[in-house]
Amino acid sequence: MDFDGKILICQRSASMKLPLKWEFPGGKIETGESKEDCLRREINEEINIDITIRRSLTMVEHHYADFSFQLYPFVCSLQSGEVKALEHAQTIWVAIDQLLDYDWAEADLPIVKEYITHAKAIE
Hints:
The protein is an alpha+beta fold.
């Protein structure tokens, strides 16, 4: 998610799997829900804002030692609301050139890199 030239990233809480790793907000798709509807719902539940989905990025399938999943990333922008970390340790807005300075969950790294590559291509 971007706003005013910055990207919103979230730090997982100490009690979550992959504690204190950084990630993009999102969550699990519920039965009958589209990927886009899931993202809108999860973003609202996790950080209290409404978003506009602008485009999709490449799906990521990742395997950790004890679980696996697929991520369906989207580039979004802030539509309304004020960011509040309701489930994460913290949420922050960072400049694109600072994204790789954080300790990311492994599954999110391909998304970070694709986002940076795309942003540089349109500069």
